[in-house]
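User: Run a structure prediction on this.
Assistant: Running it now.
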Amino acid sequence: MKLFIAEKPSVAKNIADALKVKEKKDGYFDGNGYIITWAFGHLLELYDSKDYDEKMARWKLDNFPFIPPAFQYKVKSNPRNRKQRDAGAAKQLQIIHSLIKRQDVVAIVSACDFDREGQLIGDSIIYNSKTKKQVYRLLLNEWTPKEILRGMENLKPNEEMRPLLHAGLSRQWTDWVIGINLTSVATLKFQKGRGKVLNIGRVLLPTLKVIYDRDSEIEQFKPEDYYKLNANFQTVETQVYQGTYIEKNAKFKDKTQLVAVQKQIENQPATITDKQVEQKTEYPPFLFNLSNLQGYITNKYKGWTSDKVLKVAQSIYEKKFITYPRTSSTALEESLVDKTAKVLEAVSTDLPYRNEIKFQKNKRIFNNAKVESHSAIIPTYLIPKRLTSDEQIVYTVIKNRFIMQFMPIAKYEETTIKTEVDNVNLAGFFQTKGKVQITEGWKKVERIQTKDVLLPAVEVNMKVQLLDTELSTHATKPPKKHTERTLLRVMETCGKSYKDDDSETSEAIMGTILQGFSIGTAATRADTIKKLKDVGYITTEQKNLTCTALGKRLVESFPIKQLFDLEFTGRLEKSLFDMEKSKISKNEFLNEVYAFTTNAVSTIKGTEAITIRNIPGSENNEATSKESLGKCPACGSHVIEGVKGFGCSNWKNGCTFVLWKNDKFLATMKKCVTKTMAKTLLTKEVVHVKGLTSKKGNTFNAFLRYHKNLDNDYYSWKMAFNEKEFIN
């Protein structure tokens, strides 16, 4: 009996269908010699810092840096209440572990997604059970029945995937160490007020810096005027065409230069001295990887974000209609030629231009050198009968891009005419360009309209008449604000830009993408952009992304400049990529991360305590903005009222004194700490409390004192029935 563990219930159902397992039980399918169960993504998460050490429950600068001696895992928290375990996750984990321990289960197959996170999800569940049974890995690019059965014949020992696991663990531990430490100390040092944190992350900050830099370019941009001279010419057949005056180029900074030309050529005849006709080809854009798919859809469809594109694509993938979406590749593996031909046949059956589609094997489509782990996103041979409107958009875009590869190449004819004015000695000439589409080709798939620029039939040495001229004023334009499309490209290539039209990508840039030198991965970039919005560092204006005031202050003031550096971030991601290939060890990488974090914490501690964010109306914003209830017995600062207690206003500098309103000791006597009680305790050190309730239900009065223990830094209650008992 083999036990399969899928990443999600929908994938488990796909496996069960392929293996003809019909019987569904509580948390798994069973039958035909197989058991198929599932996770809900990550069932386990890393310990919080306070799980390792109780003192970490309260943020204090002296407690950082905090790096656990060994990372530990627990059942993931309830998203609605972080203090509680997720009941569904706990139950499913228990079911999986009980299945692993079943005597009839002789082997375990991890069927999670073939990537870092999928490896981490499966391994964390399986090895947390302490099993000694043989573990295998099912590695698939799609969840169609044929592919699942093929994958069953090619199971790999899970030990072979250890480098991928190490990369997943290193990514997770790195983000925990940098995030927990730097977010905590940055919040303590650079924020006034509670309720929010200054989120610091290795992918978050360089992405923010990209947007900040573009905003700064636009702010600092100073437009410069330039001028153009256009002229209308008429042939002997009274056909009119327009030409632009060119010397080195068509833009002139000196207006007087064009004014002089304009006067010289007035009422002069002209001659066509050259005509060049060139036939050009237009190849279709490459197949989609995730970043290009997100960029295309967010640019074309209103209201879409890269995060939404990923979620919808993931849904279609789990429904078996497209291949794995979290890919960086824009080509297919060469081994997929026969399979691709069958997919093309399936998806193009009823198209009106079906007779123009011709399957072909070429390096633009099939190229192992341009594939890393997963091929580009294409449809599967299964045709969807019902999709949501959002799923239909994403599926159609992917299908169309796939079909384009096998349509005729688009061709157009470009004509360039050179017109020179007679009787005048000019340094330049007038140029006219025309363009006529000859073969529509792949543009038919999405009905891409090309605007033809028609020119009159003219020949070299033909005389024409200059009708009139126009001297126009223009201004240079600032760079455009980033959109999700352009930002994804910067993240994908770590700042190395390539053409905007998606039609061709240079070998150097594609090499950068496939070697892992990037900001984040295809799977995480959408979440990074979403988080930047959620934490208030960037905002959207229609499709444009721009820094908020908080985001600007963070970039300008946060002292760890390495985290804003694309090269630094790119090198970290490249190291994780190399770890997957066993080129770098996990310990070597993590030691570098730990050293960086320790130095960064030290730098922040030694930096002047400027305010990057001030949260108005917060319970601890400033002691002067709240009524002082008395002096703190620990440090002498003001004690002020908060939501849950009466605490020291000097908490940022490490004072931990607090009188909790719902104190556990007083709760046993059905009392809570009131504002009046707190004031009395802080001024007189003793308070007389009436109406306390005993365990038997009797009421009584007593004197209470809240004092520091002699053997540790904690405070405890002391009760007496005579105030004199408190006199030392």
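The CA atoms of residues 481 and 544 lie 6 Å apart.
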